[in-house]
Design goal:
By secondary structure, the protein is of the alpha+beta class. Helix content is 70%, strand content 9%. It has helices at 8-36, 40-66, 72-91, 96-99, 101-109, 112-130, 139-240, 245-271, 277-280, 283-298, 315-336, 378-388; strands at residues 301-307, 340-348, 351-358, 392-397, 403-410. The two termini are 50 Å apart.
């Protein structure tokens, strides 16, 4: 393979450049033929060489296209073209316009070991032209030829070095670009794998959530509905043994109130099996509605705020944050005796944060008893929800200074 890097413009110039240079050489040589003293025989010889140079260049271009790497055929044709240019320049120095093509095409037509000899031969032709034509006449002319030839060799060496440095730089840049493409490909593969892992994680979270919802619902039934039914039975037993109608009526009203409350709890539990609020709206709207309903039901001042640019989240992420908010509000209504609650949903780049704060009685987090089989979903359950989608849940509370629950999860958009 060739060690040169070919640019499209150079390839184009190598295709039509020699013809243009030959045409310039013919025109200038014809105009100066009388001045340089060309004989009729030299004119005929020049015409034959020019006529032969055209098919020679056509054959050289075809050979270069068929075999892109320099080889024996292109090298032989290069030296034949040099011989044509040398003879033409000998006959008329202005044909050097055609001979100069050997400078810029040597590295494309010659193997690496023959590039410098080819350039030296072209320098001889150019030096002969620059001293007024070959051969030099007299010692002074020969000394001038040597000086001009040395200057040409110096320029050849200088520009050859610059050219090779530029080729090395171009190859290095091409290698860097190729490496960047490989890196981008690997990065894209990693991103695709990461997306697949996210999807797998969400599927696993969904499966684990089903089992967790069953445990949560069982605990909630025990904490609310079962206790309500127990209270109803106790009230009815009092009614059965009441000594008068007034006492029976009082306890019957209490039983009815407990029944209505238990029915409401049952409906709420069934509603919480699936985030119905998310079916018609996104997470911000669902949270806003949930906070408003909770505040109306409990009589506590509740405010909801969204910060950042809201995005449509994956269903599992939305469901998880909504469940955490519902559980945190439920805990607040049961235990905190708060007068004000604030819920904030923050979109921060590649993650989403849910904060629930109250000004209630607070508690000592280290003193919270562990979750039991009959206990509520509680803090451990909220933390487990967040961790199942690669998130975290933190709790800050102090007796007499309220409670703050913060859930931080990755921002995974809806891919539908």
């Amino acid at each position: 393979m060739t060690d040169t890097v070919e640019l499209p413009r150079r390839v184009g110039f190598d295709s039509w450049g020699p013809y243009a240079l030959l045409a310039v050489g013919v025109l200038t040589a014809a105009g100066a033929a009388h001045a340089v003293g060309m004989t009729r025989g030299e004119l005929y010889a020049s015409g034959l060489l020019v006529a032969a140079a055209v098919p020679l260049q056509l054959y050289l271009g075809r050979a270069r296209r068929n075999v892109p790497a320099p080889g024996g055929t292109t090298a032989a044709l290069y030296f034949v073209r040099w011989a044509f240019g040398f003879v033409l320049t000998w006959l008329n120095p202005f044909f050097a316009f055609y001979a100069v093509a050997g400078y810029y095409s040597a590295d494309r037509h010659l193997p690496r070991r023959l590039v410098m000899p080819g350039l030296v031969l072209t320098a001889i032709t150019m030096a002969g032209s620059e001293i007024g034509g070959m051969p030099p006449h007299g010692l002074v002319a020969w000394m001038g030829f040597v000086v001009v030839f040395g200057a040409n060799l110096g320029m050849v060496a200088l520009f050859t070095r610059f050219g090779r440095q530029e080729q090395a730089l171009t190859r290095a840049q091409a290698g860097t670009i190729a490496e960047l493409e490989r890196t981008n490909t690997a990065l894209q593969q990693a991103l695709d794998e990461n997306a697949a892992l996210h999807a797998q994680l969400l599927v696993q979270a969904r499966e684990a959530g089903v089992a967790d919802e069953r445990r949560r619902l069982a605990a909630e039934i025990h904490d609310t509905i079962a206790q309500g039914l127990t209270g109803i039975i106790a009230q009815l037993q009092v009614v059965a043994n009441a000594p008068d109608l007034t006492t029976a009526h009082t306890h019957l009203e209490r039983a009815c109130a407990l029944a209505r409350h238990s029915l409401g709890e049952a409906r709420r539990s069934v509603h919480n099996l699936a985030p119905v609020a998310l079916e018609a709206a996104g997470l911000p709207e669902a949270l806003k509605e949930t906070v408003a309903e909770w505040g109306e039901r409990t009589g506590v001042r509740a405010e909801f705020t969204v910060t950042g640019t809201a995005e449509h989240l994956h269903d599992e992420v939305s469901a998880t944050l909504l469940r955490i908010a519902q559980e945190a509000l439920s805990n607040t209504s049961r235990h905190a005796r708060a007068t004000r609650v604030g819920v904030t949903l923050s979109f921060m780049g590649d993650e989403v944060t849910l904060d629930v704060r109250d000004d209630g009685t607070g508690f000592e987090p280290a003193a919270v008893p562990p979750r039991t089989r009959t206990g509520g979903f509680g803090l451990d359950g909220m933390r487990a929800r967040a961790e199942r989608i690669a998130g975290t849940l933190t709790l800050e509370s102090e007796p007499g200074h309220g409670t703050a629950v913060s859930a931080r999860v990755p921002l995974v958009g809806d891919d539908r």
